[in-house]
Specification:
alpha+beta, 5-stranded antiparallel β-sheet, 3-stranded antiparallel β-sheet, 8 strands, 37% helix, 31% strand
């Protein structure tokens, strides 16, 4: 009976490992429709034009300007800034990475990215190349600012189709953000940013 129990436990473990590996290596549903090269350029230009509104000198007594950006504009600007294009190729087989390794790894090449803003949540999907393989990472949360710096409070984390409890990755993510704190400093003239009603809202000082 003991041998049978061990065999059952081993079989269940193997099945669970196989399912987990499949989920990690699977290509998840995209968070947004891929943009063409022309759409990326047009939306990135729109993003830059709106940003220039915030850089304009505010006349005395007037209210601070507030500019709103769509998901497409944010995706396009991010694609141009990182030299990537939305979409990506299917991942190659690779052993399951740990959540902390995926978040904290320094040598990760981001091949493409997509952003979808829904309500007050920002959801990003990245195709990261690490160890010679493509890994799909989906990260969602509340984007905001505090004391002049960008903040991010995660609510969802997935590798492939495998959902990872946020509690397992948040410490590594916050540590990484703390290490890059100066890169998260808001530009001069920007008072705050947040996601609201499916748009990125940036307010002038």
């Amino acid at each position: 009976m003991e041998i049978t129990g061990r065999r059952i436990f081993t079989a269940v473990t193997l099945i669970g490992t196989a399912v987990t590996a499949y989920q990690v290596l699977s290509k998840p549903e995209p968070v947004a429709a891929p943009l063409s090269v022309e759409a990326v350029r047009a939306n990135a230009e729109s993003f830059d034009q709106k940003l220039r509104q915030l850089q304009a000198t505010r006349s005395e007594g007037s209210d601070p300007a507030e500019v709103r950006f769509s998901s497409e504009e944010v995706s396009a600007e991010l694609a141009e800034a990182t030299g990537t294009m939305p979409g990506g190729s299917a991942p190659k087989p690779v052993s399951s990475p740990s959540p902390e390794t995926t978040v904290a790894a320094g040598e990760v090449e981001v091949k493409s990215c997509q952003v979808k803003l829904e309500g007050d949540v920002a959801r990003g999907q990245f195709v990261a190349r690490t160890g010679g393989a493509n890994i799909y990472v989906t990260l969602a949360g509340h984007l905001g600012s505090q004391n002049g710096y960008v903040t991010f409070d995660p609510t969802e984390f997935k590798i492939g189709e495998l959902s990872i409890p946020v509690s397992l990755v948040n410490s590594a993510l916050q540590k990484k953000l703390a290490e890059q704190r100066e890169q998260l400093k808001l530009p001069e003239g920007i008072a705050s940013l947040r996601v609201a009603n499916g748009e990125l809202v940036i307010t002038q000082k």
